[in-house]
Specification:
Helix content is 33%, strand content 24%. It has a four-stranded antiparallel sheet, covered by helices on one side. It is extended, with a radius of gyration of 20 Å.
Amino acid sequence: MNKENNTKEPKRLVTIELRYEGRPVNEDVGGYTTRTITIGIYDTLDEAIEQGNKAIELLSKYFEVRSDDYFVKNALFGMPRTLVSNCCYRTQQIAYFAKITPLHFDDLEAAVKEAFAARERYKKYQQENQE
């Protein structure tokens, strides 16, 4: 794992997911269709917010977009708003989910080992608290 990645702001992935009903590919499987479009990968949260809001602006041509339906750096409790959706007021039963996701590039083997170690710590914690 690169120690430099631990102190550096992670890159951000901006995506738009569309959910809608379409003709089923398999008649036995119902539900909705999901299509995810990658807007881009950005070096900073500010860039991701700017580009994500441009994508939401384009969505506003087709969907109702309310004044607070945008990405912001300081939303509730000073945390960034990284998910914007119209799921409560869909247009023609089409929902969109605009997301900003931090990308963490880590060593896979180290992450797997840590997951197993965490599980062992949790089992020990449970045993200690049952006594």
